[in-house]
Write a structure and sequence with these properties.
Elements lengths: L1 H46 L1
């Protein structure tokens, strides 16, 4: 029973780490998209 609990705790820690890494990637991607959009809008204003 203790072995199974240790395995579940290990799996839980692995999944939490994976989730945190994916959230970080999503946040970075969102920030890049926002900056890209801002840059595009600025370049359109400059062309006018």
């Amino acid at each position: 029973m203790i072995t199974k609990l240790k395995a579940l705790e290990s799996e839980n820690a692995r999944l939490k780490k994976m989730y945190a890494e994916e959230r970080l990637r999503a946040d970075i991607f969102k920030e890049v998209l926002e900056k890209s959009k801002e840059s595009h809008l600025l370049s359109l204003r400059w062309l006018k």
